[in-house]
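Quick check before the chapter quiz. The format below is the same one you will see on the exam, so make sure you can read both the input and the output lines.
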Amino acid sequence: MYYVIGIDGGGTKSKAVLTDLNLKTYTECTGGPTNFLIKGTEKVSHTLIELIRNCLENANIPADDLVYVVLGTTGAGRAKEAEKMKYDFLEVCRKENFPVKSFEVESDARIALEGAFSGNPGSILIAGTGSIMFGKDSKGEIHRVGGFGRYIGDEGSGYSIGRKGLTAAAKSFDGRGEKTELTNLLSGKGITNQQSLITAVYVNNFDIASVAPLVIQAAETGDRVCKNILDEETEELISHIKAMHKLIKIDLLRISFIGSLITKNNLYSRMFNEKIKNRLENVAVVKPDMPPELGAALMAAQYFVSRIA
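Here is the expected output.
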């Protein structure tokens, strides 16, 4: 019998699932963080070994029957870093005589994409602190839109909304812009005037994305400044979808959302979904078929089958 493990790695915890090649689940386990850009490859390697060992023990499956492991995690979107994580992990396994036959490192977005559509064509739109869109066409090719980071991108994200909110607050404090309810809400974060805003952002490393919920809250009370920000940012996400649709070249583009900004019921997500419904006829928003860890397991099974074919 052949078994695979898929791992959805994160900055605070990781989730693993052990399945057979048909994705029948035998056990699920959780472990520590596996963001190797922050924790380092050696520490993450030991975390992975413990997680894999726990899966095997919980399912009472011999290590020799484990044929493939796929880790999907933050920071693995660049091939050079992913390859280093793979090499270092296999080296630690060799030194500790831990029998992992085959191991691959993928981005967290890629395993989410595979899980969302069970390996079939589709697209995921991620809008959390940052934003990015990935899609898979009928030929199996992967396409990407956005994801250029907070300095030159991340439109439609919590960071972008928060940055525009703070800009609006700065103008309001100065008298250069309209008054906004956001300035009152920011007082809860210790920002009450020009100086405290400058100190928070440039001295205290203020979490700019944390302002996004306040912008949404103010907009929900009818604040015009904040509603305009949400309108602008939803337009940015609409442009992501249009660009992806052109790349994938499929009649009906199915999209699955990731990130609390667009998955939870709030004014921002409602505005966004309303625009999709009214303006994008050949786009369907769907719930993911499977969670990311099963997407990783699916990739592990596919890698193994292609190897022995």
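If your answer matched, good. The first strand starts at residue 3 and ends at 8.
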